[in-house]
Write a structure and sequence with these properties.
The protein is mainly α and 114 residues long. The chain contains 5 helices and 2 strands. The chain has a two-stranded parallel sheet with strand order 1-2. Helix 1 packs across helix 2.
Length: 114
């Protein structure tokens, strides 16, 4: 469904899930297009989202084992699906002993790019 249409998919993704849809230049988007045009790349990206129920089940299975090292949780303050719907530090406090949470203003789903 996406194969051969990586550019359309990526431009939609970056445009809808970013605080500033113009955050990436055409040259930067071209790097993503080349990467996601490689065999298996789109499937790998999609599998991350498909694994949600498995991930939750694993979290429930080992809920009594908290992460021992200091944990930094970063999220885009302006991404509806996370920053505006969850108390992110509180979620992570249920999974780690020491949590520091930082909400990044004017940021969507892609803090590594925004």
């Amino acid at each position: 469904m996406i194969a051969g249409r990586e550019e359309i998919w990526l431009r939609h993704f970056f445009g809808q899930w970013s605080y500033d849809p113009r955050m990436l230049t055409d040259d930067e988007i071209a790097v993503y297009i080349r990467a996601y045009s490689q065999p298996g790349a789109v499937r790998g990206a999609s599998d991350d989202y498909r694994a949600g129920s498995v991930d939750v089940a694993q979290d429930e299975q080992d809920a009594d084992e908290l992460i021992g090292c200091p944990t930094l949780a970063l999220w885009g303050a302006d991404f509806d699906a996370v920053g505006q719907q969850f108390d992110v530090p509180d979620v992570w406090r249920g999974m780690a002993h020491t949590v520091r949470g930082v909400s990044i203003p004017r940021c969507g789903h892609l803090p590594h790019e925004e």
